[in-house]
Design brief:
Layout: E1 3-9, H1 12-15, H2 18-31, E2 41-47, E3 59-67, H3 72-89, E4 95-103
């Protein structure tokens, strides 16, 4: 159920392979034990065109969309673990960030929920 969408500058996927980046995000999410095994989904969007502050040429931002029900502390821990691991993988990248958004159970629907 959780979706981790990685937006990044195009040069990021030349520093590390998309597979390695996505696996890193997957592994961090899985390590928190907040999600059912096999439910984590990760995608990456490298951007060719973007504008950053002066002297900044690289960025990674993760949009984490998860089902409601986790505490603020759990989500904060997930955020910190994710950025800590990305900082290790990309020590030269100046912008590493994540935000977590909750899906509402009442309005969420997927294929398996429809007969």
């Amino acid at each position: 159920m959780p979706h981790f969408i990685i937006d990044c500058s195009e040069n990021i996927v030349r520093m590390k392979s998309p597979a390695e980046i996505m696996q890193t995000v997957y592994d961090v999410a899985e390590s928190t034990s907040l999600f059912k095994e096999g439910d984590i989904k990760v995608r990456i969007n490298p951007y060719k065109y973007f504008k950053l502050g002066e002297g900044k040429e690289s960025f990674i931002h993760i949009f984490a969309n998860i089902m409601e029900g986790r505490s603020v502390e759990q989500k904060s821990d997930l955020s910190k673990k994710m950025i800590t691991q990305l900082k290790t993988l990309f020590p030269e990248v100046p912008i590493l960030s994540i935000n977590i958004r909750d899906f509402e159970k009442a309005t969420y629907c997927n294929r398996s929920m429809i007969e």
